[in-house]
Amino acid sequence: MFFKRFTGLFSNAIGIDLGTANTLVYLKGEGIVTREPSVVAVNKNTKKVIAVGKEAKRMIDRAPPTIAATRPMRDGVISDFDVCEQMLRYFIGQTARKTLFTHLAVVIAVPYGINPVSKRAVMDSAYRAGADEACTLAEPIASALGVGLPVGEPAGSMIIDIGGGTTEVAILSLGDIAYAESIGIGGDEFDRSIMNFVRNKYNLAIGSLMAEEIKIQIGSAMPLDEELRYEVKGRDTVTGLPRSEYISSDEVRQAIENNLSNIVESVKRALEHSPPELVGDLIDRGITLAGGGSQLRGIDKLISDATGVPAFVGDDPLCAVANGTGHYIESDNWRSLVSQ
């Protein structure tokens, strides 16, 4: 069925990019109004939520035993339904306070291929968090809309959205998905690979926040003209004492090499399994990258070299999915963009 479009004084719609790493909320008529980490800090004894978003993320690996700072999303789907509902309630409540509307419709972007049970769970969480109407939108379509790809045309467009928990690879035409694949590799897996590499090579235990910072500061998918170095701080796994070590961008590439290879193989499968006419369109249109992982240095060149198809990072890649849900609820031609 098609998502019902609400109009009038007492109705409003929001789009939610419920990501593994970050949650973004698009308010109809205003744009993105919330951009926070998908993290919730809960008191283990009282079960009370202490913090959500940025404040909760700062508690990861730093909180006392009585506080659990966790991400309720894993690989793009809900791993903790109760915590996710509380997180959604918080973000929806933040948005609702910005308006005088009483009837709220919610569009939530979900990974391609999500099973019906998980999809239903996402919608139920939205309803319990305050939505009056809810529907889901496949992330590849949302991301493609968000970067401005002409998905409604009778020609092939390709999007690669590298998020925190998943990478969505899709070829689209005529407002629908011709081929898509979602793999459980994203920014979080990059971070885990860096953590393991540093532990194995330097006997140094680091947390996920330090690994993320390494990835951002010196991570790359291709050799750099001038390799970079970064000071890593953590705990010596032998002595248990604090210690620092310098790691190079070349070493970071070694750490995430298998992750990148799996993404490249997914892209190749999409090209191999799609109609030749649509694949031929990509020679002129190229492959568009989005998501936080698209900002890894040289990843567009890595994909271009591996496929022979031009690849480039789309506009505002971090907000692509959220902007796509916004395009969906704002467009006068929304019915022709996607069917549910």
SSE map:
Blueprint: E1 11-18, E2 22-27, E3 31-37, E4 40-43, E5 49-52, H1 54-57, E6 67-70, E7 73-74, E8 77-78, H2 81-96, E9 103-110, H3 116-128, E10 133-138, H4 139-146, E11 157-162, E12 167-173, E13 176-183, H5 187-202, E14 204-205, H6 208-218, E15 229-236, E16 242-248, H7 249-273, H8 276-285, E17 287-290, H9 299-307, E18 311-313, H10 320-330, H11 334-337
Parallel strand pairs: 1-9, 9-10, 11-17, 17-18
Antiparallel strand pairs: 1-2, 2-3, 4-5, 4-6, 7-8, 11-12, 12-13, 14-15, 15-16
Helix pairs in contact: 2-3, 4-10, 5-6, 5-7, 7-9
What can you see in these coordinates?
With 340 residues, the protein is α+β, with helices and mostly antiparallel strands. The protein has 3 domains: 11-142 and 320-337, ATPase, nucleotide binding domain (Nucleotidyltransferase, domain 5); 152-185 and 258-314, Nucleotidyltransferase, domain 5, CATH 3.30.420; 187-255, Actin, Chain A, domain 4. The chain has helices at residues 54-57, 81-96, 116-128, 139-146, 187-202, 208-218, 249-273, 276-285, 299-307, 320-330, 334-337, and strands at 11-18, 22-27, 31-37, 40-43, 49-52, 67-70, 73-74, 77-78, 103-110, 133-138, 157-162, 167-173, 176-183, 204-205, 229-236, 242-248, 287-290, 311-313. Strands 3-2-1-9-10 form a 5-stranded mixed beta sheet, sandwiched between helices. The protein has a 5-stranded mixed beta sheet with strand order 13-12-11-17-18, with helices on both faces. A 3-stranded antiparallel beta sheet has the order 5-4-6. The N and C termini lie close together (5 Å).
